[in-house]
Amino acid sequence: MVVESTNLISDVKARAWSETYLGGSPETERLAFDRLARDIMRVQLRNRKVASAHGVPHAIGRALHVKATLAVEDAELKFLDLPPELRVGFAQPGARYPVAVRFSNASGTAKPDTSPDLRGVALRITVSPDEQHDLLATNYPVSHARDAYQFVRFATATAGDGPSRVARLIRLAATTGPTETLRMIGNVQAGRSSKVFSVANETYWSRGAITWGDDLAVRYLLRPAPGTPPGPEPAVHDPDYLSHEAARRLAAGDIRFELCIQRFRDETSTPIEDAAVEWLERAAPAEPIAVLTIPARPAVEVNALDGMNFNPWNTTDSFRPLGNLNRVRKAAYDASAAHRHQLRWQTETPPRNVVIGRAVGSAFRLVNRFVPWHRLSTRLGLLNLDALRQVLRQSNLIDTEPREAPPTARPVPAPPDETARVRRTFDGTSNDLSEPRMGSVGSAFGRNLKPDYRPDLFDEPNPIVVSRELLHRETFKPATSLNLLAAAWIQFQVHDWVNHARHPLGKNDIVVPLPPDAPRWSNTAGGPPESEMRIAGNISLGVAPDGTERLFANAASHWWDGSELYGGDKASADALREGAKLRLTDAGYLPQDVNGFELTGFNESWWLGLSGLHTLFAREHNVLCDELRAHYRGWSDDRVYHTARLIVAALIAKIHTVEWTPAILATEVIDLGLKSNWNGPPAHDWLTRLGMWAVDQHAAVGIPSTEPDHHGVPYSLTEDFVTVYRMHPLLPDDYQYRDHRTGEDLGHRDFLQIQGSAADDELRSIGLENMLYSFGRSHPGAITLHNYPRSLQAFERNGERIDLSVVDLVRTRRRGVPRYNDFRAGLHRPRIKHWEELCTDPESVRRLRSVYRSIDEVDTMVGLFAEPPPDGFAFSDTAFRVFILMASRRLQSDRFLTADFRPEIYSPFGLDWIAGNGMTSVIQRHCPDLAALLPRDVSAFAPWRPVQPR
Predict the structure, then answer these.
(1) What does the pLDDT look like over 498-539, one tens digit per residue?
(2) Helix and strand element counts for the chain (H, E)
(3) Which of 268, 339, 550, 769 has its CA 20 to 30 A from that of 532?
């Protein structure tokens, strides 16, 4: 399906040419081009394999045109006396511009010049530091491929060597058709069969058209200037004869070419979209417009431009490339260049993983109809989860970030900032160096499920009624397998990951009418009672025609970068520093701001648990600074600070992966799976190692030992991820302080007494040791119905008085997260048909029936709380499915936790520190008196041991 370009002007006579989009729209075409770009990166991997086949490892090269035959940086392009209609932009009569020129063979491997091959040329015309124009051409007048699909599929099929190449050609014939496949092979063979005597004697044609001003469309070609002498007979025993001939020619004098254009005539003789149709001279005569001069020189450096990345979209709007074969080149060439320079990675899944993985996945889909994964044996359960994660990666990663479609012209992209290669930026930019804004502050939340906006259900049933009947804590239900640090920890992490920016109350408020039997509500601290609850609206990136907000940005970075400690911008981070260290008082506590809040990277929704963890890890940063200075005496403050920051962020990620998660999902299969995520399977566990080797190479070695992999979708955290981390029932309403030396009761507080600006006073009053011990001896709440903290149903935040349970419901609905049954089905679980399938408690079932008109209207959060979790789990299997997808993704996408998790970035000492430490050792280091009270052989998030009576 194609659709006509919206770039057409209304006057068809003035512009007779047009563009069409593959798939029916620019956005559909863009998605297809993204897939094709990844295919080009696979071509590079196959080419590297062929090039390295004789025992000499090769780096990743260009997908095509790998071997340069001549390269110069000081050529010149001089325009001739142009007719008025061709005087566009930089193309002016007599204008001269410096040009970099690279001639090359067309193959993806560096074959001898004597091998049959096409030849190519790439020009970069520099008009100014902000304006360049890349022209690319090949010595055959027509492309073998009609469109982008054919081009990439043919490149993929013909890359590499051996029997697999034959199989790929057979698949090409099956997808493209035998006739088209034979036509492409014949076209390429015809181009390669021509004997090339000299790069200076060849004519090179563009592989598509470009605009020339507002109305003209042209193809261009580069042909030898009149009087160019012919080349000698090729030296059959010289693999580099083209380079040697060019060097001899330049030693004797200049090489000149004419730059010519051919004008569009009509869609039949000079088509825009079909690149396989030659623009014949009789329909479109070649018109010389400029002369390219390569000046004489005594010697030539053939590889002088090997680091340069040519792309026809390095130009201006006046010379924009046309046609889908040109449009795909922006994404494909950018991906290829980034892959070549190790700014982007492509993971080639081993064939065994593909074949065995499919078989294992099919088997488990059958098994799971009768037995859920958590009732299988440990190793079968682990394989089952891995198979499920593969399904989720294929089906449940949805990019929402507005992307460029169709492609637009641009200046030559600047190279990556060298400092960003070796340290995290504060706003999350340049983690992916090929797409610097990916995952940064301001990037959109993605999706795991297609959003379902139901304005008719935004207030149905009334969220206040839902909260009162199903969430309100009547009696505290503890999670006895955990201690209260587990509750503080997850909020500590969520503040690093996600933050929806809000309007101030009074601007774009969400209004929730109070039920008739509800008391009036004050929306501001000390404000008047009102008949409605007003909730601060989120700041959205997009609004649908019906007024529904559809897209939201993250005010934090999406990366696991410790931003809750260090801040999300340089100014904030600098304000928290003193030299390399974080600012602490003489007693080792965070300083306060003028409002009494502790100064740290993120101090909203602040309470004693966060105060303690922020203080603990600020101390950890400062100890690391001392250690790094002792090991690397010549380092600057900046290097010490940023290296310590990297180490702390990675240590936090490790603690969350191998300690917190196995504590809150306390089963053997999760413990083994999450530790394998970080370290790979245990060395002695050959059965698990064999299973992971067979189905998942990442899990077989541990994610930090792999390369970044976004699994085909640009990285972001998702609205669905935010939803499953609504774990406020973990927070108790009442807190008991205990003395870590005697076990003595030091007093009781309710949540409102230890939150906001009171948190710092409380921490300093009882001390970090007593705070950690008190939390270690207390239990969080269970994540279930009727256990939402009463304190959070009426508390003040930034002058607002809010019921957070209502806020959670309202925000989930208005962000288009599907209701529970659709959410469950979208994560590949069977829909529930009866209320008793949702919840085993008869009273809760009765209340659910009374609140909701049908099972399909149950709120996502309510359903996740109601669903009976697997044995050992603190939350539901449905929520867990988002978790297993996104938990590994947070590691796998992050350059600093994969390819750059190495001693050159972290220092050898830093990697040893991360490997040798965890939550227990961090607590022991800063609070050594607690060593005897921490749990033995289990996570520090398990209940601590009591003080033994003296």
Answers:
(1) 999 999 998 889 999 999 998 999 999 888 999 999 999 999
(2) 30, 23
(3) 550
Quick one: tokens of 579?
A: 């030299």
Beta-carbon contacts of residue 46 (< 8 Å; ≥ 6 apart): 108, 159, 160
- Phi and psi at 134, nearest 5°, equal -100, 125
Q: Compute the distance between CA of residue 340 and CA of residue 47 in angstroms, rounded to an integer.
A: 12
Answer for the pair 730, 783: CB distance below 8 angstroms, yes or no.
yes
Locus of tokens 């770009």? 37
Residue 125 within any structural domain of the chain: yes
Per-residue confidence (pLDDT) for residue 644, from 0 to 100: 98
Residue type for position 502: R
Whether 495 sits among the annotated catalytic residues: the reply is yes
Query: d(Cα 611, Cα 597) in Å, to the nearest integer?
Result: 9
CA distance 205 to 192: 15
Helix runs in 751-791, H state only:
758-776
**Residues 89 and 316 sit within 8 Å (Cβ to Cβ):** yes
Q: Which residue has the tokens 């559809």?
A: 550
Strand partners, 532: 513
Residues 6+ away with beta carbon under 8 Å from 82? 91, 92, 93, 289
Q: What is the mean pLDDT of residues 337-355?
A: 91
pLDDT-derived band of residue 180, with 50, 70 and 90 as boundaries? Answer: confident
pTM for the whole thing?
0.93
Write the DSSP string, 494-543.
HHHH--B-BPPTTSS-EEEEPPTTSPPEESBTTPPEESEEEEPPBPEEEE
Query: What angle (nearest 5°) sits at the alpha carbon of residue 80, between those of residues 79 and 85?
Result: 90
In contact, 95 and 324? CB cutoff 8 Å: no
In the three-class reduction of DSSP (H, G, I as helix; E, B as strand; rest coil), residue 917 is classed as coil
| Domain assignment present for 546 | no
How confident is the prediction for the chain on average, in pLDDT? 93
The string of DSSP codes covering 678-740 is HH-S-TT-HHHHHHHHHH-HHHHH-GGGS----TTS----BHHHHHHT--GGGS-SEEEEE-T
The CATH number of whichever domain residue 253 belongs to comes to 2.40.180.10
Domain extent at residue 237: 2-340
pLDDT tens-digit profile of 548-589? 888 999 999 999 999 999 999 999 999 999 999 999 999 999
Which one of 65, 144, 374, 495 is the catalytic residue?
495
- Residue 945 Cα distances to 238, 262, 879, 932, angstroms: 78, 84, 31, 8
Burial class (CB in 10 A: 0-12, 13-18, 19+), 730: buried
Residue 108, judged by CB atoms within 10 A of its CB (0-12, 13-18, 19+), counts as buried
Q: What are phi and psi of 655, to 5 degrees?
A: -60, -45
Assess whether pLDDT exceeds 50 at residue 41: yes
Exposed e or buried b for every residue in 166-184, given b needs 16+ CB within 10 A?
eebeeebbeebeeebbebb
CB 619 within 8 A of CB 588: yes
Q: Is there a domain that residue 293 lies in?
A: yes
Sign of torsion over alpha carbons 915, 921, 922, 925: negative
Query: Is residue 902 assigned to a domain?
Result: no
- Rounded distance, CA 794 to CA 807, Å? 11
Residues forming beta bridges with residue 257, ordered by sequence position: 224, 292
Total number of domains in the chain: 1
Quick one: average pLDDT of 236-265?
96
Cα–Cα dist 668/672, whole Å? 6
Percent of the chain with pLDDT over 90: 80
Q: What is the pLDDT of residue 371?
A: 92
The Cα-based distances of 792 to 73, 465, 755, 782, 796 in angstroms read 66, 16, 11, 15, 9
Q: What is the C-alpha to C-alpha distance for residues 884 and 381, in angstroms, rounded to an integer? A: 13
pLDDT score of 3 more than 60:
no
How wide is the angle at C-alpha 222 spanned by C-alphas 217 and 227, nearest 5°? 140
